[in-house]
Design goal:
Helix content is 17%, strand content 39%. The chain has 2 domains: 159 residues, 2,3-Dihydroxybiphenyl 1,2-Dioxygenase, domain 1 (Roll), CATH 3.10.180.10; 110 residues, 2,3-Dihydroxybiphenyl 1,2-Dioxygenase, domain 1 (Roll).
Amino acid sequence: MNTSETKAPTIGLDHVGFIIPDLSNSHALFTDLGFTLTDRADHTRTNPQGQVVSAGSSQHSIMLNSGYIELMQITDPMAGHQLTPALKVRYGLHVLALGTPDAGAWHADCLQRQLRVGPLLDWSRPVKTPECEGLARFCFFDAPWQAEDPSYICWVQHLTPELVRSPSLLEHQNQAQALLGVSYSGPPDGLQGWGQRLQTAGAMPPDDGSGLGLWRLTDAGLTLDVDADSQTVHPMALTISFKSLDPIVQRAQALGLPCHALLGPVTGCRIDLRQSCGIYLDALESGSSASAC
């Protein structure tokens, strides 16, 4: 893959999305972990006839200072949601939503590069917070999902950004700060193919030319690690920064979730959410230096 490019990436990590079987149970888990969640909202979409119809999914969001997490349940498998087939593969982190200030321009660029992408879509969801109320609107398009894909890639432009980051939604009892990235693991050949797709999507490869390690986005990173025992590439860990680790670790331990310290230059702790979400939560400390694990 091409590693000669030295320019900075122009695509960010807008959000990640979990496809979960029960939205109420997931809401309870993340609330108990100290996150502030948005009210439950039903997705709607504009069909080719210009009518606003159900998109067949409902969600809660965890808004952060940078990036956010979406918990989504497919409520109507017959409504044509792009990720309905994913229910037959696994639950967990499926959506890798890349942020762009101009979805139309990026869509045109993808078509010019002859990438296989879907049409531009207009979706929305209601938002109600103490500060504001309205219909959050966004424009996006995707790379059609296939069962072997580690994540469903889409590119998102928020048309009403003032609605999705109300101050009250950014206050978390566990002191969560920002979405830093996602780690993927799998066999070397699978990682090479996934890396090539990430590069065409807008991520910048590692400088050493290996295709492994940290792939850069404007505000986050995607890490590819070899797991020789795995047959496929899959999301392994979601990384979030916290002002202090104490609140999130104490809440995880109270819930009986295994956690242990991460080794490295930044103080961190790995919390095992595999049973409920199919992934680890890597909590990194952005404030005090004392380890809470």
